[in-house]
Amino acid sequence: MITHHRYSILIVDDTPGNIQVVATVLAPLEYDLSFAVNGSDALELITSESFDLILLDVMMPGMSGFEVAARLQQNPASRSIPIIFLTARTDEESISRGFASGGVDYITKPFNHTELLARLHHHLEFHRQQRLIENHNQQLQAEIKQRRQAEQERTTAYQQLADFVANIEDIACVRNLDGTLRQVNNAYHRLTGITQRQLRERPSSWLEVIHPEDRTPLRQLFSEHPTGSPWLETEYRLRGGDGRWYRMHARMVGARERDGTLNGYHCIERDVTEQRRSEEQRYHRVHSQLAATIEALPDAMLLFDQQFRLEAWHNPLPQLLLCPQECLGSTPEELFAPALAAPLYQALEAAGRDRHHLGTLCALATEQGDCWLELAVATHRDPFSEELRYVVLVRDVSDRIESQRRLRQAAVVFDHSSDAIMVTDAKHRLLAVNRTFCEITGYREEEVLGKTPRLLSSGRHDKAFYRSLWEEVACTGSWRGEFWNRRKSGEGFPVAASIIAVVDQQRRTTEYYIGILSDLTEMKRSEQRLRFLANHDVLTGLPNRSLLSDRCEQAIRHHSRRGNLGALLVIHCNRFKAINDSLGHPVGDQLLQQVGQRIGETLRHHDTLARLDGDTFAVLLEGITQGWDGAEVANQILSALNQPFRIGEYSLTPGGMIGISLFPQDSEQFDTLLHQASAALGHARSEGGEGYRFYSREMTDLALERVVLESDFHLALKEQQFVPFYQPQIDLQSGALIAAEVLIRWQHPRLGLLTPDRFIPFAEESGLVVPMTEWLIDTIAAQLNRWQSEGISPQRLAINLSPLMFRDHNPSDTILELLTRHQIAPQQIELEITEGLILADAEGAMVTFSQLREHGFLLAIDDFGTGYSSLSYLNQLPIDKLKIDRSFVKGIPGDPSGEAITRTIIQLAHGLGLRVIAEGVEKEAQEQFLRDLGCHEGQGWLYGKALPADAFAALWREWREAAQSPDLHTSDLNPLEMRKK
Fold first, then answer.
1. Using N-to-C axis directions, what is the helix angle for 896-912 and 924-933, rounded to 10°?
2. Beta partners for 361?
3. Which of 113, 66, 99, 82 minimizes the C-alpha distance to 8?
4. From the centroid of its chain, how far is CA 316?
5. Greatest CA separation for the chain
6. Residue 340 half-sphere exposure, CB side, CA atoms within 13 Å?
7. Do residues 498 and 516 touch, judged by C-beta distance below 8 A?
8. What is the pLDDT of residues 495-528, one digit of tens each?
9. Omega before 664 cis (within 30°)?
10. Residue 802 gets which letter from DSSP?
11. Which of 13, 157, 295, 923 has a C-alpha 20 to 30 A away from that of 188?
């Protein structure tokens, strides 16, 4: 049986039947068979697949088998594939052409199957063996090439290494085990002048150039060197060709046979002559510097050997008394007194155990006192002898001990100082504080360290204060003064402070700041107490005459600038002397204290109550509007003094009398005012010893009159002693009488007819103005009803309402009820309201005015321009008329200010669609000026004063008759002129 490998065969034939026959013959051999029916397909398959053999037909359409074979031979990739022609052409030419085109065999059809298989197997195996041989040859050639390349690289590397070794600056050599030179490089020849040949001819020549002192040690190095040690290292001196000696540093590694036997040394020897010379120079330089340093040391330096014998010393301390001829080789007890020798021995022994010892102190007695020495010991071993050495430093620390003593004293002073002390660095960070600082500020030490003193800032001083403070410290080195700090609790407290800058030795840079603070709280309290006692009465705590004088003079200056009034009241307790004499001084003292307290309760917070002496007090009233305001206060004080005082088991009523002086009208000097008030007090005493008196008789009369009027006012309301008066209001454009303002008068039984300025102020103060106004409205409503029945019908009556009417309730319902009772329409009543009501409660006024307008009342702003009304509210208020105050009309024409204000008010009223009336018109020039500006109405003495009801009715009738007369023009209907006629 023929064995075979699994081969890949391509069968090319244009006859499918032939392909089938060949495939059937080859099927048992399990070849991988591929097929092509023409030459083109065969070439395409061969470019994409690998074949071991091709069975190629010759006669095929398009491309013959010979052409296919020729193309395969031209392609290097397919040239090695064996081709067997399988064809029916048997002529010699075809057979020759087949082999010529690259065929390896030529089989004719029909063919023998066995022969075909045998020839196929032969060519396949031959082709396989051929390929194996080719592959093997290729591997051999590659290996040969690789070996040649490696050999070349080794040769190159060896040559490079040889060149490197031969030309390096250091001596490279191979020595035998006895040290003789086997091979040297060029550096050896350059340095010694000995060549390789001379060394071979006379091997001992290497030793002749070695320094005589170094030959024996060098021989011993090689002879005694253990074979197991790979390294040798030494230094020796070598004579150069120039006759100079060179110091060489040799480093050698053992050279061994294949079996590990040591057969010599590879050496690198370097010239270190300059290096050693530099090291020696450096050593000498360092030694010199060290010697100079030791010589400059303020400390004594002693060098002891292992047996504690002195070997060397440096002694700048005369206390030790060391002399050269006596010191060397001596032990401590031979050198020093026991006070120093004993601690020195202990320090040496301690250093022997621990390698060093620090800080032993001892004291030597000298003529100047105790000298304190500090011992420090360090050990080291001699690098040659390995013996232990002791280096002892002896330092005179007497100054340090003294400084420490002083520091301890300073620390005690620092910690126990009664002043607070703080130390800060240059950036004002606290470094230390004492116990008093913590006690004063309430801070613990750990709470403030690292922080700045700003945590104590009270907030009472501005940045300029602190800037000035630190500028003074920077210029002078210190600052002293007072300021306020704040404790941890938040309480402020005054301090007296000293701040000192501590500078460096060059006095250039500030290193620390020291602050010393004294708490001035108690001192300030004492000063305040002293000032209080200097200006206050000890018994009552009230201001005394001195403080009263000061405040009075200030008040006089203030009031003279503002044009206000003030009063000084001197108060005498009538029965105090009798009470004090009969019941004793303790009762009298308590009575005076309670009198002062009770008088103070009747005063305003800015009034001043003082005790002058004994049973005499004084009151300073500031900012009063009328002179009789002092009388009101006097009445309140007298009322208080006439109430019983309870002192123990006694009920006492001292009573009193008061003298009053006014400033600035009576005087502008305190002493004069006090004298005047005391004189008024004397008048009160002479006239019965009760009540009060003004220094001016006129003021006393007015005050008494006001008291009388106040007491009579309630009766006047009850008995209806008030009388309405009517002042005419004229249409300025037509001159017609159109309305009247109702003004109230008081028909007093004794004093006669009183104008409102005599009683309205206390009516306002007492609140009685409200029932008085309600009575007035009811009265004029009844009067208007009667007039209407008589044919007298003014367009409206104007009545002024007090702000008190609006304080607790809206007056619209009350007024409406009064008018309804007399069948009077609200449109016939014009309510005049002052600007003060608007300023006090603008929002509330707007609501109230709206309700009054809803009922039909006419609304006017009285005295417009005197109360600084807000124009924004004026625009929103439901009003009908503005009334120009008489103070603006008084000076026109001719007064620029009055003219400007009047013109502005009239223009404002026109702009807001309001009517405007001017009061106080007394001259025809004023009337003409107002008419020219477009003022609607006028009121004043030019047209008539306020008249009783009957007189006003007569005036109205005269006007009506004149208006109906054909002899009068409408413009002539002036009530005043009519009355003149």
1. 40
2. 374
3. 82
4. 59
5. 191
6. 25
7. yes
8. 999 999 888 877 778 888 999 999 888 888 887 7
9. yes
10. P
11. 157
More confident residue, 408 or 790: 790
- Residue closest to 499 by CA, chosen among 479, 529, 523, 476: 479
Number of other residues whose CB lies within 10 A of the CB of residue 32: 12
Reported for 813-820, long-range contacts at CB under 8 A and 24+ positions apart, including other chains, are: 814/774, 815/777, 815/857, 816/855, 818/774, 818/777, 818/778, 818/781, 819/777, 819/781
Tokens read off for 453: 């003193």
Task: Read off the amino acid at residue 767.
Answer: G
Could you tell me where the beta strands, DSSP code E, fall in 807-880?
829-834, 858-864
Counting every residue, how long is the chain? Answer: 981
Contact 433, 516 (CB under 8 A): no
Cα–Cα distance, 250 to 221 (Å, whole number): 12
pLDDT tens-place string over residues 297-341: 778 888 888 888 888 877 777 666 565 556 788 888 877 878 888
Within a 10 A sphere around the Cβ of 418, how many other Cβ atoms? Answer: 8
- Which residues lie across from 84 on neighbouring strands? 55, 105
Per-residue pLDDT, 702: 59
Share of the chain above pLDDT 70, in %: 92
Please report the pLDDT score of residue 230 as a whole number: 63
The pLDDT of residue 3 is 45
Return d(Cα 452, Cα 441) in angstroms, integer.
14
Over residues 816-839, the mean pLDDT reads 86
Q: Which amino acid is at 856?
A: G
Q: What is the pTM of this model?
A: 0.39
Cα distances (angstroms) measured from residue 421 to each of 411, 460, 485, 507, 722: 11, 22, 14, 23, 81
Q: By CB neighbour count within 10 A (0-12 exposed, 13-18 middle, 19+ buried), where does 399 fall? A: exposed
Do residues 101 and 70 make contact, with C-beta atoms less than 8 angstroms apart? yes
Tens of pLDDT along 429-460?
999 999 999 999 999 999 999 999 998 988 88
What pLDDT score does 4 carry?
47
Report cis status (omega within 30 of 0) of the bond before 756: no
Q: For the chain, state the CA radius of gyration.
A: 70
Cα separation, 694 vs 21, in Å, equals 167
Identify the pLDDT of residue 250. Answer: 92
Q: Which two tokens stand for residue 322?
A: 């060391």
Neighbours of 593 (CB within 10 A): 18
Retrieve residue 384's tokens.
């040659």
Q: What is the DSSP string of 700-711?
A: HHHHHHHHHHHH
CA distance 745 to 754: 6
Q: Which residue has the higher pLDDT, 841 or 161?
A: 161
